[in-house]
Amino acid sequence: MLGTTAVTGIGESAYYRAGRSPHSAAAMAATAVHAAIADAGLSVDDVDGIVTYHPDQHDSAQLWSWLGLGELRFSAKAWGGGGNSGASAVQIADAAVTAGYARNVVVFRSLHQGAEGRYGRYNQTARPAKGDAFLVPFGAAMPVVKNALLTRKFMHTHGISQEALADIALADYFHAQRNPRAVMYGKPLTREAYHASRWIAEPLHLYDCCQESDGACAVIVSSADQARDLRRPPAWLLAGATGMNSGGGLWAFNDTDYPSGRLAPVGRQLWERAGVRPADIDVAQFYENFTGSTLIAISDIGFCEPGGVEAFVSGKNLHFDGGVLPFNTSGGNIAEAYIHGLQLVVEAVRQVRGTSTSQVPGARLSLFVAGPGTPPSSAVLLSAEAP
Amino acid sequence: MTERYLPADWPLPQITDVNRAFFASGALRLQQCRSCGQVQHPPHEICHHCQADTFDYVETSGLGTVDNVTVVHHPGDRRLADQVPYNVVIVTPDDYPDARIVGNVINADNTAIEIGVPVRCVFTEVPDPDTGETLTLPQWELR
What we know:
A: alpha+beta; Peroxisomal Thiolase, Chain A, domain 1; ten-stranded mixed sheet; 13 helices; 32% helix; B: mainly beta; three-stranded antiparallel sheet; 3% helix
């Protein structure tokens, strides 16, 4: 936070459509983690902490030993939130390094949805309990159904049209055409093709939904004293935030922030800690599990009022070359790959380094926002300059 | 009483002491805290307002309004393959408008289900596959 830590290394496996990776999740994690360590110019013995999120397939102790890392000093997992925890995981690593519990913490996610089961499907046989008992028996089981409901109500309440959803998907595909790593590289999307695509759950078309992918990525969060001397320009960590309002954790659409507002506390915390405003941000990566939730996130975090989000995202406003808010410049979950959103942190770092395939000229402040699906949500802000 | 809207092999809720009144009483009942009077949905082991843990389950009029609707076209689960397109709604009871209840509108064309339309609660009787107890799943019809 504010000069105590920086992201010093990034690493990725190749990204695949779900079920297409010839490598296991463990093998892809090894590729990504070792690539991040090498990118930073560190050795395996320099890395002394590990953080992930979601019920990862691997136990952290097992993975640590399989990867041949040194003495472990810090291990944690973000609590709840699913893909909303991507920035939380970075924030936890930042907190651990800032507190002195570790010097170089690796944050990773590895998914093999072919082996693990595709995230977009339900396929569970156990009788649902707790909050799910009030959703699943009525068919609100798959993530897309819950997000379709949130989106429908948000659009209805704030007068948002289908074109705003299209603008998110089109910006993702536009940037993916410039990124050879993207699964949708070479597959441009037109507005006509967007509207012609099939419904998944109204108002979400096929192109409103993130991909299901296999792949892994990792970043290294290091102390400031090391960051200055490592191989790459540091991506200074200005602030992280994880949060929600008091009633944000209630079940089955009875949370107090329905259908929007789940990210508002995260925005308030982030801007206050970093000492900057939304208008200062040069480039942003948003966890778009679905386009509609991304519209909610853009307004919640503070870029515009909910009713103004359609104008905010329209035209080329999200494009890297002159847009008001260059957005998901590697193609995002929708058109690059869905590595549970952590690949968006990797892209946020590339923007700070000046190495994105859709580089925003002179990018200094680079934002990653994860949410607003399952609370709590999170965000992290990186800077090219030491604060 | 009506047939189940979703297929017979689609999961039914686990019945517990706090959700039995909602799923098996044959009426649309909401959980009310005996200590502070707060009504909350879904029901839970503790009151989210005062953290007490004894409740009554008040019967509502069964009349409500569609607060939200989606029509699902992609099944996402093989058991739903023959069911799509199906609707999922959120209904607010007219006498407890702060509660949001997820369900389905039955016996209606999906295009007729819009935010703001009035509905009434109806019940689908289905035997609990583990205990044989009769469940009464709250569903909705246009009115």
